[in-house]
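Section 3.1: Structural characterization of target chains.
Under the original work plan, the team committed to producing a structural model for every single-chain target entering the pipeline before any wet-lab resources were allocated. The record below documents one such target. The sequence was received from the expression subgroup and is listed exactly as submitted; it comprises 207 residues.
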Amino acid sequence: SDEVIAKANAAKEAINNAETLEAVENAESEGKTEIANQIAAEQLAAAKKAAKAAIDAVVPEGASDEVIAKANAAKEAIDNAETIEAVENAKTEGETAIKDQIAAEKAAAAKEQATNMLNNALQVAENLVGILNDVGYTELAETLNTAIEAANAALNNAEATAETLTTAREVLQTAVTEAYDAKMAADALADAKATLQGAVDTAKAFY
């Protein structure tokens, strides 16, 4: 860089101006140190610039305030690093913190969606239980209630994930479908029996 060349020129000028062998050696040593320090400073600055660009690259558009805060903390740690190794460590830790935050937010959003869908399924199931009880299908209602209890247990489990809540909803929906199908089959059988009984009663009227 221009700065390195300037320090080299300054060192050579100091050597030229030296009046003793000792002064020459001192000027040479100081010049080498100045040049090495300048090169190290430039390498550190380049490493910091690249590390901060890497941090920006893992922050998605529309990121939450929490993600942005972690990115800013990472860049501050990079700025404060005094060695290239420290810069790399700050970058790696920052990337991990940002990715973990993004993953946590996605998991929370997925869990919220799964919770809402399970609540909707529970509403349908509870409505069907009421209908089954009203028309006397108490055994079907009790079976469906068991599925409802299991779904509520999943819903109230603080450790539940989107996946477990989705599974609970699917199990509940299957139970609702089975209960509904059983009711429809029972209704059809009752209708068939009524029709047959009507036909028998009509036939009896002719005898």
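Residues 84-134 form the longest helix (51 residues).
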